[in-house]
Amino acid sequence: MNLSPRILSLTNKRAELRRLAAWVDEFATTLDLREPMRGELQVALEEVASNVIKHGFRDGATHTFTVALSADADCVTAVVTDDAPAFDPLARAEVDIALPLEARPIGGLGIHLVRHLMDDVAYERRGARNVLTLRRRRGSTAPVAEM
Fold first, then answer.
1. Taking the mean position of all CA atoms in its chain, how far away is CA 129?
2. Tell me: the pLDDT tens digits for 90-128?
3. In whole angstroms, what is the distance from residue 93 CA to residue 115 CA?
4. Which of 26, 91, 110, 122 gets the most CB atoms within 10 Å of its CB?
5. CATH assignment of 3-137?
6. Are 79 and 39 in contact (CB under 8 A)?
7. Domain-by-domain residue ranges, the chain?
């Protein structure tokens, strides 16, 4: 089954996360995605969108970014695109989850979670835009990230 891309435009306001969650749920229902994949897609996209909203735009102005979802027989793909300053979340060092919480540096757990919930995560800078692509194979069992 090929499902052409569906695109949601969001603003950099925390309240948009509820709208994103409902939209992803509708997409998952259309594809008859089952748990745990449905929940893992929700969590990964919420983490990425939260980071765009919280860290992407420092000027206090309202900005928009997009989330595109598509699917084929083998894979569900999500693409998050924003025009924030260049930032490659995958360039960050992996979080050392073996360290006690009080010894861990702040930050990085969200992208750690995304990396472990999805089968493939890729970043690229296209012109003035950050493009983060998340892929999850249907039927795969992504390991749940430990915290």
1. 16
2. 887 676 566 565 655 555 567 888 999 999 999 999 999
3. 12
4. 110
5. 3.30.565.10
6. no
7. 3-137
